Amino acid sequence: MSDYQYDNQTVKKFIISSIFWGVVGLLAGIWISIQLWKPELNFPPLFTYGRLRSIHVNVLAFGLVLGALMGLFYYVTMRLTKRPLVFSGLARFTLYLFNFAIALGCVTLLQGYTKSLAYNEFEWPVNLLIVILWVLFAIVILGTIIKRKEEQMYISLWYFIATIVTIAIIYIVNNLVIPVGLFKSYSIFAGVNGANVEWWYGHNAVGSELTMAVLGIFYYFLPKSTGLPIFSHRLSIIAFWSLVFAYLWTGAHHLVYTPVPDWIQTLAIAFTIFLIAPSWGSVVNGFYTVGEDWSKIRTNYLTKFFILGITFYGLQTVQGPTQGLRVVSQLIHYTDWVVGHVHMGAMGWDALVITAAIYYVIPKIYNTEIYSERVANTHFWLVLIGQLIYSITMWIAGIQQGALQKLVNPDGTLKYTMGEIIARNYPYWKLRTLGGVIFVVGMLFFIYNVFMTIRKGNALAASKA
Amino acid sequence: MAKNIYSKPVIFTILATLAVLSGSIVVTFVPMLTAQMHPKLEGLKPYTALQLAGRDIYQREGCSFCHTQTVRPLKTEVLRYGEYSKAGEFAYDQPFLWGTKRTGPDLARIGGKYPDEWHKEHFENPRAFFAESDMPAYGWLKAYRLDPSTVEAHMKGLGFPYTPDEIAVLKDKTELEALVAYVQVIGTAVSQKAAAITTAPIKVSEHVPNPLAGNPKAISMGEGLFKKHCEVCHGKEGVGGIGPSLKSKGFLYVQADVPDDDYFEVINNGTHQGGAEDGRTEKGGMPNFSGTLSKDEIWALVSYIRSLQGTTGG
Predict the structure, then answer these.
(1) Which fold has domain B49-190?
(2) Does B196-308 match B49-190 at the fold level?
(3) So what's the pLDDT on residue B144?
(4) Do A186 and B293 touch (CB under 8 A)?
(5) A231 pLDDT band (50/70/90 cuts)?
(6) Is the pLDDT of residue A323 over 90?
(7) Mean pLDDT computed over B133-152
(8) Which residues of A, range 162-181, sit inside 8 Å of B by Cβ?
């Protein structure tokens, strides 16, 4: 066990760092959600919606989720290879580099330094740091896998490898820029080509970081916490390869009805529909795994996180492809519906699975039990209710926005002006804030539980010493 | 094989990379090398130094989080915003700023729709123009001046042509002026007038008299519409403001009356820089209401305007 102690500390520090960035990103989220119905809460130049929204998205995607995933990747890789990390010092260095990069990104975004590319707003010096970070991270993970002491690579490791490769490719390509200042650059890609590159990146950033990586986490922690083996190994193989193959074709479903060539849009839509199959391969695998003993959902507090998580993943991966269809895209594209969609994935699937994995890892590192299952249950119900209020409100608002924009009078003129449509958004925007606040309160219960567990672990270690 | 690769991490990684690359190559890398991804409209010009500075501010303030810049080829969208977006319009857009969400309206056809003054006042106080708006105010931008050397470096980076004079004058320009200059050029490479006229659901042939002329009910309906849509620019009871006064019988900057159907045309189609109505040159800046107002509503507005002028028109 002592061999792992140093690496375990790296894991723990990644988790704590990610929680810190999570708080920053979530508070920014609450703030911008209020700004939408209370514009007086914009305080220029730094604290306007346009600046804070970048912070919300990037600090959560790269600070909270990526930080937690790096820690969890290290943890799981050690267990699945039955050895400590190959370059422990390097792994610890990635922790510092990670925090430095996110801090720099956060401060520069607030100052308005942005590339204006969705999910990739950080400016070029931050991109450079993240590329270095990712290469070092890849060296540690792949090196540890190559030097493993367990013959077979378990499913999670497949997803880890795919995540590392995918993020490396898309992140480097979409960050090819002409630097024109210390924190200012222009993409080398223009117009329709730029749009095509951006959404190939954007969709697959979600596809790798928020899907493949989280699936890797899911496949490890679900059997670990329930004690039930994965239902079908063969299904995992089919689902993995078809997912990894199909994902990268689908980016242009974000560009339906734009001037991007039609054939690229159509191909993307077709592959998007195909993606339901591998996505549901994992959903079925998850359900049937717990299906071997449903009583686990009562007796083991973590099971419901994973089952609800994979349920939202399942819903997400049906809703997503549906949205890609031209006839649906017409109605809901550019509306709040899509915001609801993204947040079901992030708050439903990713947040549930990642927090559950952290609940599993922290006590293991300290060789103790979770501080309070009751607090964890409260956390569960609050984030679930918060997320449902959020997503459902946004779906309704989105359909309303889309429909009102399309309504015409008998003489062919438009029935509603944009102002009249905006006026009808306010009740939904306020409800969304309520959902968000409930979710964040749930996350505060989670954070409290994690820190109390660490405190308990430290006290235990001190008493043994 | 199937069993083997899961114990051979290097081969596994290579296979995973190939799987990931397959789609990437077909839908992203190969098209990039073909002409279809690099279209350019004839007559499309690179941004001027002032416009680029404005675009930088548009990026910095995250305008594209709430405003898209693509009109989809859908009936109601073309009606609301104007001609649908063409692939060749964006050749100088690095990065593209199409956006993903319309919390506010699309801006692909905003250029020339309103006068500069409209934008300045709207940035200052969006809710004075649209009571329902939740847009943050950006009047504070006028307190900041441009830095010519920064803008020059940006122009160089993009390889856009500029003259030293063009850079030198920037030091007296505010960020607000730059932003307005950018907003006013968006989408102007595509002719708006022709599009506005062809897509207008309502058309009136030349020299049709106003069927609602002098109708008291129409005048009061017109008054309501005027307060909602026109007053913000043309002032209370048409005394003028951002837009010209409607009380005199001058029309398109010429002091001589025109028939009612010319008023109809201008309300319906808007004015466009370089356009002409009844032989008079348009400066642009009057938005079209063809998508929003019905035929009767437009005639009612004309009746109301005529009542302000103290006539029933003709």
Answers:
(1) Cytochrome Bc1 Complex; Chain D, domain 2 (1.10.760)
(2) yes
(3) 98
(4) no
(5) very high
(6) yes
(7) 98
(8) 162, 165-166, 169-170, 173, 178-181
pLDDT at A396 over 90: yes
Domain boundaries, chain A: 1-188, 227-465
In chain A, residues 230-269 whose CB comes closer than 8 Å to chain B: 237, 241, 244-252, 254-255, 257-261, 264, 267-268
Is the pLDDT confidence value at A450 over 90? yes
Task: Give the pLDDT confidence of B32-58 residue by residue, as tens digits.
Answer: 999 999 999 998 999 999 999 999 999
**Partner-chain contact B6 A184, CB within 8 Å:** no
**DSSP letters for chain B:** -TTTGGG-HHHHHHHHHHHHHHHHIIIIIHHHTSGGGS---TT--PPPHHHHHHHHHHHHTTGGGT------S-HHHHHHH-SPP-GGGGTT-SS----SB-SS---TT-TTTS-HHHHHHHHH-HHHH-TT--PPP-GGGGG-B--HHHHHHHHHHHT----HHHHHGGGG-BHHHHHHHHHHHTTTTS-HHHHHHHH-S----TT---TTTT-HHHHHHHHHHIIIIIHHHH-GGG--SSSPPSSSS-BTTBSS---HHHHHHHHHH---TT-EETTEE----PPP-TTTS-HHHHHHHHHHHHHHTTS---
Contact B140 A181 (CB under 8 A): no
pLDDT of residue B1: 46
The ipTM is 0.96
Using a CB–CB cutoff of 8 Å, tell me whether B17 touches chain A.
Answer: yes
Indicate whether B256 pLDDT > 80.
no
Q: Mark yes or no for CB contact B100/A338 under 8 Å.
A: yes
Chain B stretch 58-117, residues whose beta carbon is closer than 8 A to a beta carbon of chain A: 59-66, 68, 70, 72-77, 79-80, 85-87, 89-106
171-210 in B: which are within 8 Å (CB) of A?
201-202
pLDDT at B254: 73
Domain ranges of chain B: 8-37, 49-190, 196-308
228-287 of B, contacting A, C-beta below 8 A: none
User: Does B15 score more than 70 pLDDT?
Assistant: yes
For A25-58, what is each residue's pLDDT tens digit? 999 999 999 999 999 999 999 999 999 999 999 9
> Which one of 3.40.50.970, 1.10.760.10, 3.30.360.10, 1.10.3720.10 gives the CATH number of domain B196-308?
1.10.760.10
CATH architecture of A227-465: Up-down Bundle (1.20)
Mean pLDDT calculated for residue range A73-95:
97
Chain B partners of A409 at a C-beta cutoff of 8 Å? 294
Class of domain A1-188: mainly alpha
* Interface test mutation site (partner B, options A414, A424, A426, max chain B beta carbons within 10 A): A414
How far does B91 lie from chain A, in Å, by closest CA? Answer: 5
Q: Name chain B contacts of A45, Cβ cutoff 8 Å.
A: 140
